[in-house]
Amino acid sequence: MTVSVTRAVMAKKLRRVVVVSDLHCGHIVGLTHPDFDGDRRDAELHKLYAARREYWNFYIREMAALRPVDILVVNGDAIDGKGERSGGTELITADRNEQVDMAVAAIEATGKPDIYMVAGTPYHVGVSEDWERQIVQRVKALKFGIHDWINVNGLTLDYRHFVSGSQIPYGRHTAVARERLWNVMWAEDAYPHSDVIIRSHVHYFSYAGGVNWLGVTTPALQGLGTKYGAGRISGTVNFGFIHFDIAGRDDWSWSRHILKLKPQAALVA
């Protein structure tokens, strides 16, 4: 579904950009390639196996429909980490080397795009280590940073993993709008002036914008089924990703791909 369009995209110049984030590979509802679904004898893992398959099948189906993808932005939290807050009880595997393998398989399933990555939150990707660098090397990402920019046919995309969240519906647009204002101010001194602001981390899809800018918080590729989400977070979360078709700065469109999730209670019943 197209959310916002300027003028008609000229296919001969078009470049397709897909933005994924928050894969949380290794978590019981993280994005999980079927080759890594491991030991299903554990009751908790078995209950969520069907959910993982649904998430993976949606991801593959939507990606296949978009091919060829020219650029893939992996916007943080590709792995879930050690899961200390839940004592590791929500993990398929606590082995971060295997989590890296899972993330590589998920990224490679998109085809052969140019890949750009930014780091996620230290809790997930390593406080004293930097596990996402292994992914960068293995998928041959062109760039890896914390906050970055890419210019595609004249349209500048500003992407970073972290953004503050809100548990009130009307507050969800504020954070990304604030990011846009900071970009305008920073552009006077150092940073590139950006047309599109992309943030992740909060696991819900939201957007704001004006005549000459768009700000988006991306959906996540981690589904429902976390103890933290069930016990402490109010509000909706979304599973999916976004993509852009860019022919020029004044000639582009974008869409979101979101799976309708079952209630968390139903997943673990």
Summarize the topology.
Layout: E1 2-5, E2 15-20, H1 43-47, H2 49-66, E3 71-74, H3 96-108, E4 114-118, H4 122-125, H5 132-139, E5 143-145, E6 147-152, E7 155-160, H6 174-186, E8 196-199, E9 206-210, E10 213-217, H7 227-232, E11 239-248, E12 251-259, H8 264-267
Parallel strand pairs: 2-3, 3-4, 4-5, 7-8, 8-10
Antiparallel strand pairs: 1-12, 2-11, 6-7, 9-10, 11-12
Q: Care to describe what's here?
A:
There is one protein chain. This protein has a single domain (2-267), classed as Purple Acid Phosphatase, chain A, domain 2 (4-Layer Sandwich), CATH 3.60.21. Helix content is 26%, strand content 25%. Mean pLDDT is 88; it is low at 1-12. The strands form 2 sheets. It has a 7-stranded mixed beta sheet with strand order 1-12-11-2-3-4-5, covered by helices on one side. It has a 5-stranded mixed beta sheet with strand order 6-7-8-10-9, with helices on one face. The protein is of the alpha/beta class. The protein contains 8 helices and 12 strands. A hairpin with a 2-residue loop joins strand 6 (147-152) and strand 7.
Mean pLDDT across all residues, rounded? Answer: 88
Instruction: Indicate the CATH architecture.
Output: 4-Layer Sandwich
Structural class: alpha/beta
**Which word captures the global form?**
globular
Query: What's the total number of strands?
Result: 12
Annotation field: number of helices: 8
Under CATH, the homologous superfamily reads: Metallo-dependent phosphatases
The helicity comes to 25-40%
CATH topology name, in short, is Purple Acid Phosphatase, chain A, domain 2
Query: CA-to-CA gap between the ends?
Result: 32 Å
Largest sheet: 7 strands, mixed
Strand order of the largest sheet: 1-12-11-2-3-4-5
Work out the count of structural domains. Answer: 1
